[in-house]
Amino acid sequence: MEQFILHYIILFIKGYENMKILVINAGSSSLKYQLFDMDNESIIAKGTCERIGIDGHLKHTPANGKPVFNEDIPMPTHAEAITAVLDKLVSAEYGVISSMSEIDAVGHRVLHGGQKFSASVKVDETVIAAIEECIPLGPLHNPANLMGIRACEKAMPGVPQVAVFDTAFHQTMPASSYMYAVPYEFYEKYGVRRYGFHGTSHRYVSAKALEVMGIPAEGSKIITCHLGNGSSLAAVKDGKCFDTSMGLTPLEGVPMGTRCGSVDPAVVEFIANHENMTVTETLTMLNKKSGMLGISGVSSDFRDIDAAIEAGNERAKLALDMFNYGVTKYIGAYTAAMGGVDGIVFTAGVGENGPNVREAVCDNLAYMGVKLDKEANNCRGKLQKISAEDSTVQVWVIPTNEELVIARDTQDICGK
Ligand code: AMP
């Protein structure tokens, strides 16, 4: 408690603007981090711990010209991983801060907040218990996210932590968007419904779209396409999520790198029976061996798919056609659902770097007045309007920045 009070006194003296915030994205055997100087929202160091629980490897990249550290370090648990990161952040050779007390707060990406969290929150024991309760909804990620929180608590006692949920932005969906037409009791008993993911990204790029388009949230209709290894779309009406393509889990929606996207649920039993597989094994196959990889037989990576198409691979072409068709269908559906659309946003790995995907999708939308500026569309990884002046709908590439949103939320919640 004393440490906690002391921390806030230091925060008060240092002031809101000078906060340094560590952003953590903990996976089951990995942990990615970025240390932000919120004075100018710059990244002063970033890195990844891998093979946690197996052996352990840390790649730490300082932004101040000091050398990159890229070596094996034993990491039996996430606690050792966090300790290794903090060690490097303050070390004479690789460090970017003089002492750990310079870290004012930690922001964590948390996958599943269920129906409990519609915004980011400061972590306390009640919040931890609620994240634990959501484990059945996010069995792979939530335990890892909790390990990250616990490890930081241990290594940095008293430093405030904030949880930022992938599901939170989608909590504004109306029931007609989020309910599945299965017996109502399964919603009541187990919370079986659409939750949606990539919420931090959809929130950031939809808000940015309103800013660059110069229109108010009230009355606006934006469709955000987060297209990466995992892909999801969101219909954002009046600045709030109205519908999204991922569901109870990230398996639903458009075909993805290795996920099948939406299929007839009867496919599960059909394949399980024919292949003598359990339901769990079948779902693992639908999560890890399907999508671009499963159709093309080449790769889950869109760059490999592009190369295979160049070399005349028909299945790679089919995979990409299915992806573009899936994205087109959702945009059409969300335009109808919102009664129109003002702006379409492409973001994430493929959305930001794949002019071919953007062109194919926008050409499919010509019927509704979408017209691409092909020269402007030939861009990668930068904020760019790519629709022609006479397009009835504006189309933008907006690079996402989930880590920055986590850092900003953490600052807003922990700053004075
Ligand atoms: P993400 O999950 O957002 O990191 O996106 C990963 C996906 O983006 C991978 O399938 C990559 O192939 C794709 N991607 C990244 N860079 C490019 C690029 N320059 N051109 C096409 N696809 C890219």
Summarize it.
The chain is about 40% helix and about 20% strand. The protein contains 16 helices and 14 strands. Strands 5-4-3-2-1-6-8-7 form an 8-stranded mixed β-sheet, sandwiched between helices. It has a 6-stranded mixed β-sheet with strand order 11-10-9-12-14-13, sandwiched between helices.
What is the CA-based Rg, rounded? 22 Å
Helix content: 40-55%
The poorly predicted ranges are: none
Outline:
globular
Query: Can you give the mean pLDDT?
Result: 94
Q: What is the count of DSSP helices, taking H or I runs of 4+ residues?
A: 16
Strand content: 15-25%
As laid out across the biggest beta sheet, the strand order is: 5-4-3-2-1-6-8-7
Could you give the order of the helices and strands? HEEEEEHEEHHEHHHEEEHHHHHEHHHEEH
- Give the end-to-end Cα distance, rounded to a whole number of Å: 18 Å
List all distinct small molecules, including ions and cofactors, that are bound in this structure.
Answer: adenosine monophosphate
If you had to describe this structure to a student in words, what would you say it looks like?
The chain is globular. The protein contains 16 helices and 14 strands. Helix 2 crosses helix 4. The two termini are 18 Å apart. 40% of the residues lie in helices and 18% in strands. It has an 8-stranded mixed sheet with strand order 5-4-3-2-1-6-8-7, sandwiched between helices. A 6-stranded mixed sheet has the order 11-10-9-12-14-13, sandwiched between helices. It has 416 residues and is α/β, with parallel strands linked by helices. The longest helix is centred in the C-terminal third of the chain and has 25 residues.
